[in-house]
């Protein structure tokens, strides 16, 4: 970054310049992002750390095309996301992004397999839904409805749903926030597996410093800005993490 | 403001669309109630006040001719409070430039102001003066319709003599609230008027010095009307009395009564249906609101609010909606009530007819609206009160979906994941879905049931005029005539066909029931008349025995084979027994028929005619009408075309005005129900829909999940709506039938179609509104919430 023109760098998944996000509510305005510059290389495993309210989710949502920055530019490879309209942004999400949230956001009226199919129905080059569930170790629970699964299992279905379309990017907002340590680790393992086997770029938001050790890089957030970038030369396998 | 009340205000504002939709439905119910009860109440109050103020008589009698001294004998009957004798005489009027027959019924009135009964209320001018033989008072509607004022002169043919009458007063009387010319079915104020003339003058004009041909009496409180009528009949028998009768058989009063019955039938049936539907709506919306606020409720309870406080909080939501509905509904009801009352004021001859805003009506309407809202709220409020704080604060267990029958069908049809979402959601909440379907179905049914009144009235007109009457003119004679008169009419150039018709006034009795009516007969080879039954079939006159219309048979509780006692009224009061051989479902009137032979046996004379039916060459109409005017034997001429037009006009203005109000209300309900259902679906599924958007579904694809479900429910509701509509229509028609009309069930496919189109348009419009919300769905916000 630092003034260099990063737009030509073919090895980057995302690059953003001067991203600002201002929430205007009546008289008051909240500056959730205050000029964020970032570059996320393809295939990186990145963790966003930072205190509550520092703007992590805001950034993630913008990267994933759920929201738009108030100002600044954002590119995904050679597409300028900030120039897309709603429909194009949706197509971008459909093609490239897999989301995982703290609350699993499964559709209760669809079985595990059908929840995955929801995504494979509209993807270009998806896996078989069963294979995706196999990947997260839930092949035998295909026909179960969310109500019949535990929280950890539901989150793994959400992971399967996210990876089934072979996305370029996996965006995870506190994927283990609602889970205990050992269940959380299983979810992280599946993320790691997707990253390893599919070469997916993974961005994980967490409060949990313990999780950060599995990342290549850690962005420390504070007051809507990247306060510090930490590079981790030796990422740890999720299996060795606990909290 | 307390925090909880603040929440209430915010909730109301947040759900303003739905709150308004419920309020509108509830307002429609309130308005129908205020409208029909208000109009009915106003009419009843007006009638009662008018009858009392102008001493409307209790018993009436007509006779051929009797000396005036007979009045004193009648007055001496025990139980009679006051008796007055008068002359009534039909006359033909001659207006320059008007070829159509115009008639007047002239009543005598005491020129010294000693008449008490059926008193004239003067609008303008004075009563006829003694020694002024040409003074007349004219009824207001006739004067208005024909541009007559004080001082206008009218050329009249009275009792075969031409006379010029001078209008000195304009007024009305309680015995002619509904003024019907003989042979007519609806009042025609342009062609028929009521006149009042000084007694001496009318006696002179009709050669009835010191004689009378009509009697009116009032009874003492507690006197037996039947007893008095028997005694009156026996006194009048030698004078050609046609049988005394009470108010219930008095033409004007009976018509008014049947109108009031119809109104009160509407009051009993329509508002309750509307209230039911709105209760449903409140139930759906509030129940759903409380479900989504489980956690909040648990929290508030955890803070220490009591169950009652929570219950009251949600009840207030319903009450606020009800309050808005009461205000809107009352205003609409008053406005429409005034419009209706104005119509009635034109149609009926009342000296005053005010739309009365009686507080009890509003209190009742308010109580009903609040009751409906509270009842609807009850389910939700109770579940809110019952929620345990701890339970409430943990999210509701995710609904358990299972593959059911519908599901298997879905798999057969190869549904996509979105298709599964639609079908499973419907199948998962069968109760909620059923309520939506029922709500939409009810509103469509209501719309259809009100719509079909238009079809029914048209069918009635068609059956009565187009199918059963083929004559151009009906000529009524002053008294029964023989073939000579008929022959004379046939000689008039332009008359193409002449058929005699005979009607004799009778009293029919079966067991303890009796009914004054007339038996009609016609030429067996008649080409100009036919009797059409409910299925549209032509019914021949029976060779022997009586045929009654369903109306009349019901009134006598007679069934086929019953021996009906027939007493001839007027002239010889002979009695005979005739078997009821047929009941015919007719649309207009309560009538009795017999073949010519039977009629001759009842009357014990060979068949003279008291009316003839003519078919004429339309080119010769003016000439024929002029000739008929000059014939002294002709009492009146009714033109079929004019009667049809008048009838149509009355139906259009009276029935259809009311109906169009109801149609508007029903349409509002359909819109309200569909809108609310769509909004509820949207709120329930907002989270899922946002998730779909996050996963990369396009707005249009996401909207399909929602709209697909709405479409599915609406499609399910359509056949239900048809069935409910059919049932409600039958009920309404049954309740709407009066002595005057019996509406046939004749719903056209267009009415079903119209109801369906309104519901579908409402669905489409709300779908668009809801689809817009899908576009604006804030994914980020929805995902922050936990569901
Ligand atoms: N819709 C909104 N309207 C107004 N302010 C908002 C909105 N969404 C977020 N904010 C504000 O923006 C700031 C950043 O929010 P964000 O959700 O990105 O924080 P975060 O880092 O994800 O916090 P956490 O770790 O608690 O999830 C916060 O101060 C928040 O209050
Ligand atoms: Mg966050």
From TrEMBL, chain A:
Keywords for this protein: ATP-binding, Nucleotide-binding, Transport
Per the record, the domain of life is Bacteria
Note whether Signal occurs among the keywords. Answer: no
Q: What SUPFAM superfamilies has UniProt attached to this entry?
A: P-loop containing nucleoside triphosphate hydrolases
**Residue ranges constituting the ABC transporter domain according to the UniProt record:** 14-243
CDD domains named in the record: ABC_MJ0796_LolCDE_FtsE (cd03255)
Q: Which PROSITE patterns match?
A: ABC_TRANSPORTER_1 (PS00211), ABC_TRANSPORTER_2 (PS50893)
Q: Which InterPro entries match?
A: AAA+_ATPase, ABC_transporter-like_ATP-bd, ABC_transporter-like_CS, ABC_transpr_LolD-like, MacB-like_ATP-bd, P-loop_NTPase
Which protein are we looking at?
ABC transporter ATP-binding protein
From TrEMBL, chain B:
Q: Name one Pfam family in it.
A: MacB_PCD
Q: What membrane topology was assigned to this protein in its record? A: Multi-pass membrane protein
What protein family is recorded? Belongs to the ABC-4 integral membrane protein family. LolC/E subfamily.
According to UniProt, the name of this protein is ABC transporter permease
Domain MacB-like periplasmic core residue range list: 433-568
Q: Which residues form the signal peptide?
A: none
- Taxonomy of the source species: Bacteria, Pseudomonadati, Pseudomonadota, Alphaproteobacteria, Sphingomonadales
Predominant place of localization: membrane
Keyword Ligase appears in the UniProt entry: no
Q: Can you tell me where the transmembrane regions are?
A: 269-286, 317-337, 357-378, 434-454, 659-682, 703-729, 749-771
Keyword set, alphabetical order: Cell membrane, Membrane, Transmembrane, Transmembrane helix
